[in-house]
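User: I'll paste a sequence; please echo it back and then give the predicted structure.

Assistant: Echoing your sequence first, then the prediction.
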Amino acid sequence: MHVADQIRELFDRPDAEVDLGRAAATLARLEYPDADIEACMRRIDAYAGKVGARLDKGRPRETAVSAINKLLFEELGFRGNREDYYDPRNSFLNDVLERRTGIPISLSVLYLEIAKRLELPIYGVGLPSHFVVKYDDRSRLFFVDPYHEGRVLNQQGCRELVKTLHGRPVDLHDLHFAAVENRSIVLRMLNNLRAIYLSARRHRLALEVLDTILALEPDSAEEIKQRAWVRYELGERGSALRDLERYVDLRPNGADAEQVQDWMNKLRRTLAHLN
């Protein structure tokens, strides 16, 4: 079964019922078709078990954050991969667990999955150009940055972080600090991989990523158009033409309508010549 089909199946239910860890681990099969997803789940189970065994039932729940941080970042040595940020392995949960390094969103997924097993009120937060998690039990609210070894932040700290990343102040609204759905997390991971593969001209893998994005967002016109281009680069002209026809159906009056029509005509002439 293709990764796109596996992801579609995992998300064929309400978002709150989606197994985020399993979905994230499934993305590794883009590069490793035989990736052992159950091994990833067992390792996360073990990490959660170690943290849970250290928690004092009489202490506030937010102290669990310190216990998670101690295990992941002090004892196990997980850290953000600042040396090779765009290595695709940073996005694959099996590699993240094995190499103990990743990017903000993959390390946050690991954090979220441990928290879920401990029934902690910890959620993913998609800041501009960065991903963190937040602890929110309605009486306490703070943010944790797994990419920076579990640094604890308040909202102002998040603003300063984003400002540093962008080199200028960025206006953040309440929506930026809201918990994001599992679907959005996986799509963000896929978008990272898409950018990496396209930049490296690894078109076959870029196509698989686009197929997987479209499994979650089947009417996303921009992704359909981009898939047409990737298929064209791979010599799959018939498939490219079908994607462009679908794109025109979705955006019949788009600003690029004339350009797309010219491209479609060129593809039709090429296909007619081949036949």
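Strands lie at 79-80, 101-102, 122-127, 130-136, 141-145, 151-153. The longest strand covers residues 130-136.
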